[in-house]
Amino acid sequence: DAKTTQPDSMESTEGETVHLPCSHATISGNEYIYWYRQVPLQGPEYVTHGLQQNTTNSMAFLAIASDRKSSTLILTHVSLRDAAVYHCILRDQQGTGSKLSFGKGAKLTVSP
Amino acid sequence: AQTIHQWPVAEIKAVGSPLSLGCTIKGKSSPNLYWYWQATGGTLQQLFYSITVGQVESVVQLNLSASRPKDDQFILSTEKLLLSHSGFYLCAWRTGGCNERLFFGHGTKLSVL
């Protein structure tokens, strides 16, 4: 799986919209962009994923740059429950899947 | 629906003692299974991966071993714990297809004293 770059941390306030950036300059054509989030002493939770088009679900909106070298996870009306470490990961779904790496991610702090 | 269960929830063990952590997946045949470990404040590290019974691939060497004795079971163990084994252990299974994703268990918190 190729490398991604995220800020170490971001801060927000309840009710705001948060933009979490991820850079993946060496992404290859068959790699999907995945986002997971993790709170302490729990396993990561799937948030969303996409290949080329922007995607949206009940948890977040994923905006993917036209050259696919970066993406942004957009969380609207954040609450305290959205505070977590957000991981941006690239996955080649044609691969064997033997190695699935999580980096440090970006820690999102939400203030009341 | 698929469920993933890890046991025990937490363990406090002495250095040099043996350890066995378990993970069971229900509702999914031939799942791809993973063991991850996370030191306190650290990143999630993949330890082992298994695609079928009896087959386990090691990703990171931490003086631990893993086995897949049944299709729905994945075991992590060691005969002698080290202080550095302390942390949070997570089992996960991976769906396939274009909507592939990982589902994690609730984890086991291990304290080695």
The profile of the biggest β sheet of chain B is:
7 strands, mixed
Question: Could you estimate the helical fraction of the residues of chain B in percent?
Answer: under 10%
Quickly count the helices of chain A: 0
Work out the oligomeric state of the chains in this entry.
heterodimer
Spans of at least 5 consecutive residues with low confidence of chain B: none
- Coarse morphology of chain A: globular
Low-confidence stretches of chain A: none
By DSSP, the count of extended strands of chain A is 9
Distance between the termini of chain A: 37 Å
Structural class of chain A: mainly beta
Structural classification of chain B: mainly beta
User: From the alpha-carbon coordinates, what is the Rg of chain A to the nearest angstrom?
Assistant: 13 Å
Please name the defining characteristics of this protein.
heterodimer, A: 112 residues, mainly beta, five-stranded mixed beta sheet, four-stranded antiparallel beta sheet, 9 strands, B: 113 residues, 11 strands
Topology:
The complex is a heterodimer of chains A (112) and B (113).
Chain A: E1 9-13, E2 18-23, E3 31-38, E4 45-50, E5 55-56, E6 61-64, E7 70-75, E8 84-92, E9 106-111
Parallel strand pairs in A: 1-9
Antiparallel strand pairs in A: 2-7, 3-4, 3-8, 5-6, 6-7, 8-9
Chain B: E1 3-7, E2 10-13, E3 19-26, E4 32-38, E5 44-52, E6 55-58, E7 65-70, E8 73-78, E9 87-94, E10 102-104, E11 108-112
Parallel strand pairs in B: 2-11
Antiparallel strand pairs in B: 1-3, 3-8, 4-5, 4-9, 5-6, 7-8, 9-10, 9-11
Short summary of the structure?
The complex is a heterodimer of chains A (112) and B (113). Chain A has no helices and 9 strands. Chain A has 112 residues and is mainly β.
Describe the structure.
- The complex is a heterodimer of chains A (112) and B (113).
- Chain A is mostly beta strands.
- Chain A has strands spanning 9-13, 18-23, 31-38, 45-50, 55-56, 61-64, 70-75, 84-92, 106-111.
- The radius of gyration of chain A is 13 Å and the shape is globular.
- Chain A is 0% helix and 46% strand.
- Chain B has 113 residues and is mainly beta.
- Chain B has no helices and eleven strands.
- Chain B has strands at residues 3-7, 10-13, 19-26, 32-38, 44-52, 55-58, 65-70, 73-78, 87-94, 102-104, 108-112.
- In chain B, a hairpin with a 2-residue loop joins strand 7 (65-70) and strand 8 (73-78).
- The mean pLDDT of chain B is 92.
- Classes of the chains: A mainly beta (112), B mainly beta (113).
- The interface between A and B is medium-sized, with 23 and 26 residues.
